[in-house]
Design brief:
The protein has about 280 residues and is of the alpha/beta class. It has 8 helices and 8 strands. Helix 1 crosses helix 7.
Length: about 280
């Protein structure tokens, strides 16, 4: 990458808890300037203190935004652009699995809004700065459960039937499709886009997926789960590698459907329309 590690800026959504927090700590330990996004200011401030102490790095900042709200995502992007003149790494990590169907203020099903549209909108709003900071990296946290999912374009909001784990898998498939389409659109820019399965770690998100009470993993377990995100964000081994799906720091084949360029293009067009962006 074109800047020394202590000059790089990395934005991590959901960086206040779970694997996002561990990713922030791991990258902060490398000297990266970390900016985390948290929905809750108090939890975010607690996480900032934890990251600074664990990494012995004072360059850790907080931005507060509810990623279910497109207005807040736009404000988040504006605030980031006001405070920073570069963005070397964007890690789209935040996710939710509500057990009952919920609708956002924009009228979209909550998982679809947070797990997919937030990735899409925030990335596109920051893309000019990312390109200007190239070589730069975009890392999208997906999941192996994408492999069992399909996409029903006639019911993207899951109004007919809401199964929380099924919807989650669908949004994780969207993450892979988005990554591959983004990589195609970024050819020649020196900006890479990759996605990953972080492993099965006992986070709040995994507890929700399993339909059980929270059973948080230890920080060492979370750090294990964060290794592929950290690797894709920082390792010279993947410099220039783009449009790939990783697990355990190795490229893996994703679901067959994820390679369908017509599906990816259709999802992009629909997502652009839903977020008010030009196609």
């Amino acid at each position: 990458m074109n800047a020394a590690m202590n000059e790089q800026v990395c934005l991590i959504t959901g960086g206040n808890t779970g694997i996002g927090l561990a990713t922030a700590i791991g990258l902060a330990q490398l000297g990266v300037h970390i900016v985390i996004v948290s929905r809750d200011r108090n939890r975010g401030e607690t996480a900032v203190t934890q990251i600074k102490q664990a990494a012995n790095n004072t360059h850790v900042d907080l931005l507060v935004a509810d990623l279910s709200s497109q207005a807040q995502i736009r404000r988040l992007a504006d605030e980031f652009l006001e405070r920073n003149n570069r963005l070397d790494v964007l890690v789209n990590n935040a996710g939710v699995i509500p057990q009952t169907r919920q609708v956002t203020e924009d009228g979209y099903e909550l998982q679809f809004a947070v797990n997919h549209l937030a990735y899409f909108l925030l990335t596109n709003l920051l893309l000019d700065l990312i390109k200007a900071s190239a070589p730069a990296r975009i890392v999208n946290v997906s999941s192996q459960v994408h492999a069992w999912a399909t996409i029903d374009f006639d019911d993207l909001q899951n109004e007919r039937r809401y199964n929380p784990t099924g919807v989650y898998g669908q949004t994780k498939l969207m993450n892979v499709l988005f990554t591959y389409e983004l990589a195609r659109r970024l050819e020649g820019t020196a900006v890479t886009a990759n996605c990953l399965h972080p492993g099965v770690i006992s986070t709040n998100l995994n507890a929700a997926y399993m339909g059980r009470s929270q059973d948080m993993a230890s920080m060492s377990q979370l750090m294990d789960g964060a290794q592929t995100s950290i690797y894709l964000a920082s390792s010279p081994e993947v410099e220039g590698v783009t449009g790939k799906y990783f697990s355990h720091q190795r490229t893996q084949r994703s679901a067959d459907l994820s390679y369908d360029e017509s599906v990816a293009a259709k999802l992009w067009q629909i997502s652009a329309r839903m977020t008010g962006l030009a196609v």
